[in-house]
Amino acid sequence: MVKAPRARPLLADDQPIRSHAREPRDPKQPQLPFDPMPDRIEPCLALLKPRPPVGDEWFYEVKWDGYRIAVHLNKGNVRILTRGGHDWTHRFPHIDQAAKALGVGTAIIDGEAVVLDPEGRPHFGMLQNSLGGRGGKLPSGQALMMAFDLLYFDGHDIRSLELTARRYFLESLLRNEDGAIRLSDTIDGDGREIFAAACRHGLEGIIAKHKDSSYRSGRLGDWVKIKCVQSDSFIVVGYEPSPVARGGIGSLLLAARKGDAWVYVGNVGTGFNESSAAALRKLLDRIVRRRPPVVYDGGRKDIVWVQPTLIAEIEYRAWTHDGKLRHASYKGLREHQDNAAVLEVSGG
């Protein structure tokens, strides 16, 4: 099984900070009729905000940097579905085994598949490498699941319950788990201080969740994400060749979506290592095209243009006044099965 790479929660200086336990259920409560188990549930998505909401009605979690997954457990049978609904059970064998070992007959657990670095921080590049890179077919021997919601439990659809109630059942289910399925700790307090602590620890950001919200699919504002460093998905439209750079790639040319077209948003030339650059070059050379898929104003003449099919996850600090990325760094390629949405920029 996967070993724990950290001794304590990321944002706790002393003891673990967890959400408050609820009172035990009344044993006299009548049994509820069983609900049919959904084949798939569209995930609840977090709305991006520049600042965290503040108030007693919110609690906060680490923003895990990996692949969103849902674990479906049905009488010993496990399916692990990506955000796009693709079955990746075979790619996360340790999570599969951990789900089968849970003491419940049926459940749907919402969470994130991650690989943690030696400091216990999620690392998207390490997750991708463990899966064999973008388009790879390897099962990950390192990935674990950080579970943050429970949607179906012991024959009952509990999405209509408030988040604190769902968390109570999830904590009961994962109380003693420290293997490949782990509880994503919740933190009560001032969202501004928690966000500052996350940034000091080198995390991508935090998620704020409304305690009384039911589970609603889509991006409706019940969950809010606040990022220390901006990170979004962009389409790769070409590259600048270089005889001295890793993989012969000086930089990637990136585009965002604007209506039904692509708009050039700049280059990224950092974040590659030897193996990722070489693998990326092989993918790019298979999709070369003669004409640029975007209007290019970068000035270079030796650009190698490619079909706009590869989606790259990019970290960046800000935007320039003319709509280009500043201080961009390459994190890796997104899988199509992950259903990653390419950033859309407004018109004008």
TrEMBL record:
Cited SUPFAM superfamilies: DNA ligase/mRNA capping enzyme, catalytic domain, Nucleic acid-binding proteins
Record domain ATP-dependent DNA ligase family profile: where: 136-227
Spans annotated as Disordered: 1-37
GO biological process, one term: DNA repair
Basic and acidic residues compositional bias, start-end: 15-28
Alphabetical list of InterPro entries matching this protein: ATP-dep_DNA_ligase, DNA_ligase_ATP-dep_C, DNA_ligase_ATP-dep_cent, LigD_ligase_dom, NA-bd_OB-fold
Catalytic function, reaction form: ATP + (deoxyribonucleotide)n-3'-hydroxyl + 5'-phospho-(deoxyribonucleotide)m = (deoxyribonucleotide)n+m + AMP + diphosphate
EC number from the UniProt entry: 6.5.1.1
Gene Ontology terms, MF aspect: ATP binding; DNA ligase (ATP) activity
Superkingdom of the source species: Bacteria
Keywords: Ligase
PROSITE patterns reported in the protein's UniProt record: DNA_LIGASE_A3
Class of enzymatic activity (EC top level): ligase
CDD domains listed in its UniProt record: Adenylation_DNA_ligase_LigD_LigC, OBF_DNA_ligase_LigD
Coiled-coil regions, chain positions: none
Family affiliation: Belongs to the ATP-dependent DNA ligase family.
Record-given protein name: DNA ligase (ATP)
Organism this protein belongs to: Rhizobium altiplani
